[in-house]
Amino acid sequence: MSIAIVRTVADLRAQVDQWHRAGLRVAMVPTMGALHDGHLTLVRRGRERADKVVASVFVNPTQFGPNEDFTRYPRDEAGDAAKLASAGCDLLFAPGVEVMYPTGFATSIDVGPIATRWEGAFRPGHFQGVATVVTKLLSQARADIACFGEKDFQQLAVIRQLVRDLDLPVAIEGVPTVREADGLALSSRNAYLSADQRQVAGQLNRVLRDTITKALTRPDAVEAACQEGASALLAAGFASVDYLAIVDAATLEPLSTLGTAPARILCTARIGGVRLLDNMPVV
Fold this sequence. Notes:
This protein folds into 2 domains: 4-175, 3-Layer(aba) Sandwich (Rossmann fold); 188-278, 2-Layer Sandwich (Pantoate--beta-alanine Ligase, Chain: A,domain 2). By secondary structure, the protein is α/β, with parallel strands linked by helices. Helix 6 packs across helix 7. It has helices at 9-21, 37-49, 77-86, 97-100, 119-122, 126-141, 153-165, 195-201, 203-217, 222-236; strands spanning 4-6, 26-31, 52-57, 91-93, 145-149, 171-175, 240-248, 263-271, 274-282. The protein has 10 helices and 9 strands. A 6-stranded parallel sheet has the order 1-4-3-2-5-6, with helices on both faces. The longest helix has 16 residues, at 126-141.
């Protein structure tokens, strides 16, 4: 089984426009490749919500910092194409950097406060890169819906903000995180983990769930529960914890007490040179 691949915006739009003229709904799944079952779950959700699915594979240089892993980020277009075809994807958009950022490109998108804390604080410029490339992809594809994983919860919030603020005619679908048997969230960067590090990584899910339990037991002591959770990660073998916080699920503002509004626990922790990000609802 194979999948059609296009590399220019004109070819992408020609196919999507043809589908729209036929009265078909189109879903888009933007990715950076190195696909795993989490990405394929997004494709399958797209097939549930639309008649056709287009996925993009583009390792976006503008969302990587100067000391991050852009050059070694895993790339396997042939393998990604085969996986997409097996999941029922109809079209792969695989542009080069010259297509996404042609000579003279100078525009960037800043979505404001929702992007300045948590990941935004630890990765300056990251969400400007994300917001810019996602805006371009959504504009290029002109799909009816776009599917993004809840695993990158702040990214999802940023994308919802930009779609709302810029009046982009696309519905954003958040899809629950896909996890390994021990609860570790699927991520392309999990491939960087050694066998020993992978054992430690499996504790992240447990600690977050324990922290949620403590916060629900003591709803007026959320910050203390989060501090205990960070200490538990260090005791489990993580090298450092960038942040562990319970936040308002809509605004991402940190909470000191739990109320009736939906909340989310967010965390990023490091093992060696690997940075693991996770989140889950507080219920």
